[in-house]
Amino acid sequence: MDKAKQVFDLMVTKGSMVNVQSCSILINGYWRLQEAEKLFSEMQDHGQLPDVQTYNIILDGLCNNQQLSEAIEFLREMEGNKLKPDIVAYNIIIEGLCNAGEVQSAKDLFCGLSPKGVQPDVRTYTIMISGLCKGGLLVEAEEMLREMKQKGCSPNGCTYNTIIRGYINHNDTSRATSLIEEMSERGFSGDASTMELIVDLLLKDTVDPVLLAWLKDKV
After folding, report:
1. Helix/strand/coil percentages in the chain, nearest 5
2. Is 58 in contact with 37 (CB distance < 8 Å)?
3. Among the listed residues 136, 123, 117, the one whose alpha carbon sits nearest the alpha carbon of residue 92
4. Which pLDDT belongs to residue 13?
5. Which terminus of the chain has a smaller tally of CB atoms within 10 A, N or C?
6. Gyration radius of the chain's alpha carbons
7. What is the dihedral of CA 201, 202, 207, 210, to 10 degrees?
8. CA angle, 197 then 203 then 206, to 5°
9. Residue 15, pLDDT score
10. % pLDDT > 70, the chain
11. Average pLDDT for residues 66-82, to the nearest whole number?
């Protein structure tokens, strides 16, 4: 990255064309957030206004470093600059909030998407379902699973595995089994993490009889 930055600085010195795309690529390559933020400021000093992709890179770095308040400030800055955040930007913030246990704040942000003209995608729903499950809000998680289907956003394998793991982790193997059957009917299968939980249940001899029958049918 040092050599890449040297080339970037040389381009600036010689008056070569430096655009938003080249700045975004360099920012994305930094693993130290402080350096990425510094370059983010430098590109604006050189007259290059950040685009949505550039902001998303910074948002992702801030959330990964648990700097949620700064990430939300960046999101507001985007809106203030009349640069409409896309669903990727909101997904980054929502996931950061869920990972920090701030599920209610994530829900508030999620509920505000449609009024902003931004439609949640399958990743948005899956992130929210994961956050709700981790918070023990399984009824809400399943309501969101039904809601996304009603709104024309089909759950994928990741979505099903997420809520199934939520039920298993909260010892509701009966409901998990029903969702496993639904998932299977839709052509999806359990991922490694889900199957590991099911194996643990088998080892503990606490597996639901219906789930056991389903497993035997699949073997």
Report:
1. 75, 0, 25
2. yes
3. 123
4. 44
5. C
6. 22
7. 130
8. 80
9. 43
10. 72
11. 88
